Amino acid sequence: MKVAVKQWHAVAYWKWDTGATTEQDANADEDAEDDVCGICRVSFEGCCPTCKMPGDDCPLIWGQCTHVFHMHCLLKWLNTASSKQQCPMDRRTWVTAERKVDR
Amino acid sequence: MADTNMIPRPATPPQPGANADLTTTWAYLLHGVDGIMTRLKDGVSYTKYMGLYTTAYNYCTSSRMHGGSLEAIGGTRTTGANLMGSDLYNSLQRYFRDHLQSIRGQTDSLHDETLLQKYAEEWNRYTVGANYVNRLFTYLNRHWVKREKDEGRKNVYTVYTLALVVWNEEMFKYIQAKNNKLANAILRLIERQRNGESINTGLIKQVVGSFVSLGLDEQDSNRSNLSVYESAFQTPFLLATENYYKAESEQFLAENTVSEYLKKAEARLKEEEDRVEMYLHSSTRKGLILKCEDVLIRAHAQKMWDDFQNLLDFDKDEDLQRMYALLARIPEGLEPLRKKFEDHVRKAGLAAVQKLVGSGGQEAADQVEPKAYVDALLEVHRRNQEVVNRSFKGEAGFVASLDKACRDFVNTNAATGSNAAKSPELLARHTDALLRKSNKMSEEADLEQALNEVMILFKYLEDKDVFQTFYSSKLSKRLIHSVSASDEAEASMISKLKEACGFEYTNKLQRMFTDMSLSKDLTDQFKQKQEQNHGEMEINFSILVLGTNFWPVQAPKIDFNIPADILSTYNRFQGFYQSKHSGRKLTWHWNLSRNELRANKMNPKYIFMTSSYQMSVLLQYNDNDSMTIDELVQATGIPKDQLEPVMNVLIKSKVLLSDEKDTYDYNPNYKNKKIRINLNMPVKTENKQDTSEVLKTVDDDRKFVIQATIVRVMKSRKTMKAQALIAEVTQIIAARFTPRIPDIKKAIDTLLEKEYIERADGTRDTFNYVA
Ligand SMILES: [Zn+2]
Ligand SMILES: [Zn+2]
Ligand SMILES: [Zn+2]
């Protein structure tokens, strides 16, 4: 037949690479809790309550405890007295993890 | 003076000296005053007038001369002046009385118009004369009368007013005492005019004017009031009016249609307004018009209300206008019309949809065309909106009736049954058709007009969130498949929705457009980089990168085998994207991608426009002439159930052939008149699937909205009873949809479980917010 591809209009969607295996996440409808920021409960791909646009302007932050938050949400939390500089999910002292882009 | 009946004029007495007594003085003054009152047309010379004036003056001031030394009389000085003034005043009063008593008998034999003429004539003569006499006695007015009044004496008037008071007593009351002869004469004249005769309205104006002049304020005789006019004329006039129109309207309605009556009543009301203008006192207007409205409108309102439907049914526009204008004049007049109008519009709306659905039952209802449906609803709205504007002057109550009726039939009708989501869906589908390239709109203005019409119905939708979800689903498809009519039209529609429902409502929709433009930039940057590094690309590549949250599309979970032909482009883009946006990863919607393929060995070299699934199938035939379905599943990575519909389209278009079941062959003899062939047709079953998906999304969104609203309310109130909480949440959400109480209760349970809220100690229905 000999057809050649001349044009390709692709469609894709982006997510933050939170380290969770996405294929499983996609299956989970009800317990999609893992996909949302534990502070503001908005999904990672949305943005924190103070931002208007998701994306690079409202990035995520990873802790060594493996918890992930909107960066703005976490910094706001750490600025409060009650935070005691702890992760809001497990109360361990917050240490920002080095995030490797290439896996 | 040719009149032989006239009493011979007495000889003019000589002007009295400065200290003359009352008899001498009054003899001189009486002659002058009577001359002015009865023979003014003969004229009064300046000398004569000055003589009279001086005599009156001298007499009033003469007390000083009589009273001896000033010291001797001291405080009683004024008493002398009092006596002098009162002498003159009493004499004048006696004169006016004698004069009127001598002429009033002339009216005895007169009736109706001749009576009025005589009365007016005498009145004019009398008041003109009295005016002169009044000026003659200026000194008396300024000093004696003023002082008497200042000292609180009642029934003392300036000379002109005295003349009126005497006229009232001796002339007016004299005639009126005979069965209200004067007023009745006026009333009969007015009745003749109402019967269509032409009358001397100037005459009525004069007589009525005299009634007005005769009214004096009891407390302050310097001020006039309308007591005489009102009691002698206005009260019997209003009564006569009532009787006249009561009889007339009843008889007219017995012999004519309501429509004819409306014209009659309108004309009569106008006539009465004019009557006041022409010859009555303006204070009569209010009472007269109220009376007419009572007899002409209120008394027959029921008949008008009963005829209203008839006028609506036959589009009797002028009659409707008239009925509206008449009934608007009485406070309770319009409400029954508004109710009937509302019913009328509701019935019209329901009938229009019923006609569309026919007798086909549920099946026909399901298959109603969005455009036909929307057009039918709009037509009913348009027609009745016109009625409101034209016949009811856009009155707010009728606008409310129209809105109420439209809200009812737009949301629930023969096509929707009990499905509240149906109307939002049909309207959203219609809007989608308008905003597609295929919309057959030649002019941009037509499209804009059509979108404005969508908003008319949108305003009436109860479940606006259902519309929003359908709209967002349809918009995403228009954008992904590049079939949108124009960016301007899309933006225009979004701004209309935003204006109607606020920023929140269109936020996600607007973000889709942001993704579109970001993706365009991304594609350009990628292309530029590729050309720098690798020269011109073999494949013309473009990409749309979606932010998952705003796009109501899901990627099917399949393990798609990326064909070798596009693999290098794929890898390069992945790398490019990673370098631009670290921390993100892409998931590819192969089911939404599309391609163009060129068949190099065919003659002509056909261009096939395909989905990426079709592409991956067709590429297999570069190396094989025949493949089974299982081989194709293996080679493409597309599951069998999703691959079969793809194969069906390729067979139907004869690009592939299938002689044997589950075996597909390359068609070497493929021919088509066109060079560019679109194989990327949407699959038929899409609509139904869409609908159930959308409704599920709506359901999920609602759960979320209800929960979020409860949390927001509880956060600000801290403690609330269940009933109050449910009421407040319902009210907040009502703008988007009507929440069901069981759903709210369920949400409360969920939040109790998740410990956002807790039951207050020892209660079942009071909740506390958990911080
Ligand atoms: Zn957050
Ligand atoms: Zn942010
Ligand atoms: Zn943690």
TrEMBL record, chain A:
Instruction: Please provide, in alphabetical order, the Gene Ontology terms of the cellular component aspect for this entry.
Output: anaphase-promoting complex
From the Swiss-Prot or TrEMBL record, what is one GO molecular function term?
Answer: ubiquitin protein ligase activity
Q: Where is the RING-type domain?
A: 48-91
Q: Does the keyword Mitochondrion apply?
A: no
Which keywords fit this entry according to its UniProt record? Cell cycle, Cell division, Metal-binding, Mitosis, Ubl conjugation pathway, Zinc, Zinc-finger
Q: Which domain of life is it from?
A: Eukaryota
Q: Which GO terms describe its biological process?
A: anaphase-promoting complex-dependent catabolic process; cell division
The record's section on InterPro entries has: RING-box_E3_Ubiquitin_Ligase (IPR051031), RING-H2_APC11 (IPR024991), Znf_RING (IPR001841), Znf_RING/FYVE/PHD (IPR013083)
Protein's name according to its UniProt entry? Anaphase-promoting complex subunit 11
- UniProt organism field: Calocera viscosa (strain TUFC12733)
TrEMBL record, chain B:
Q: Coiled coil located at which positions?
A: 255-282
SUPFAM superfamilies per the record?
A: Cullin homology domain, Cullin repeat-like, Winged helix' DNA-binding domain
Q: Which GO terms describe its biological process?
A: protein polyubiquitination; SCF-dependent proteasomal ubiquitin-dependent protein catabolic process
Ranges for domain Cullin family profile come to 422-651
**Superkingdom in the source lineage:** Eukaryota
Pathway per its UniProt entry is: Protein modification; protein ubiquitination
Record's Gene Ontology CC terms? SCF ubiquitin ligase complex
Kindly give the Pfam families that the UniProt entry links to this protein: Cullin (PF00888), Cullin_AB (PF26557), Cullin_Nedd8 (PF10557)
Q: Which UniProt keywords apply?
A: Coiled coil, Isopeptide bond, Ubl conjugation, Ubl conjugation pathway
Keyword Transport (UniProt): no
Query: Could you give a GO molecular-function term held by this entry?
Result: ubiquitin protein ligase binding
Family per UniProt? Belongs to the cullin family.
User: Known PANTHER family for this protein?
Assistant: CULLIN (PTHR11932)
Designated name of the protein? Cullin-1
Provenance organism: Calocera viscosa (strain TUFC12733)
